[in-house]
Amino acid sequence: MTTTKQDQTHVDQELSQLLNQAVELTGRDPNGSRGKRIREMMHTVCKLSKDNADHGEVKLLSHSLKEMRYALKVFRQYPGKRISIFGSARTPEDHPDYIACVKFSKALAEKGWNVITGAGDGIMRAGHGGAGTDKSFGVSISLPFETTANDIIQGDPKLINFRYFFTRKLMFMWHSQAVALFPGGFGTQDEGFEALTLIQTGKAPIVPVVCVDPPGGKYWHHWANYIEHSLLDYGWISEEDKNLYFITDDHNKAAAHIQHFYRNYHSQRFVYDTMVIRINRAITNEQLDQLNDDFGCLVKSGKINQGPALQQEHNEHKQLPRIYFDSHKNQYGTLRRLIDKLNDFDVINNPAISD
Questions:
Q1: How far does the chain reach from its first CA to its final CA, in angstroms?
Q2: Domain limits at 57?
Q3: Strands 209-212 and 265-271, sheet pairing
Q4: Residue 261 and residue 243: Cα distance in Å, rounded?
Q5: What are the residues facing 275 on neighbouring strands?
Q6: What pLDDT was estimated at residue 281?
């Protein structure tokens, strides 16, 4: 049977009406911002049928959407700052790496932070052990050679099980305001480089990335040697990219580095080509002039400004002051230095405020 253009138009119109009704049944206005997005998702799913997508393609998209929806639902119930901790699943409990991770996660938990790990053993269990179950999230992956989850997070409502690495990785980055890397194998390197790549390219907001060794450890110094001589020397990264990570063998310094990052800096977003940096406290005019002198290379046109929330931010953290400028959308290592400068200004302005 041949489908005419007129028939197809009728089908599309009927489908559009049905999708609008479905959105309304969920309690959303199909013409509202979120309602439109939900409608678009449903329309995309319907297109899979029209595209004659095979069983494997439909199964992949169905499972991944379910995983992401459920994970978002869980994280939404537990507000607060979170750090993703990566490291080897093979690290024994008496190893210096394990002990350093326990101390590190405990130090951050005492400052109100929550810990996300892959929920396995080794460094993952150490992260949960230091933070405690109440401040721990687990994002487990189904693997044939590892247990589902360690005994600390097993059975907790904040344990989320994933089938796919890509949905799990997305949740690690989406819901983390910091990343900690402890010594590990291919998986640790993969997660670390992915975090740095997303930050370097502007596909994820800048967050502190700390590479933590035990006292006297050299794992991350060997890694830094590779970065220096096999990436930087050949021009595959820039000197400024080295600002995106911090290496230490002192867990207290690692925790302090993360705390300092949020001393005045709050968050960032783009409004079209405008980089908006939300800060907890305004800076002085003299300090704003210093930012323009030191970081003018980040500005595409005009200058770095300070002011209230932009209209297009839809009341997001409306009470906070902003630093904003027309951005080239690159040089994120330099932008990291600007954030450090903002936080250093705050030490001068508010010496009584502790990290």
A1: 71
A2: 15-75
A3: unpaired
A4: 13
A5: 270, 325
A6: 95
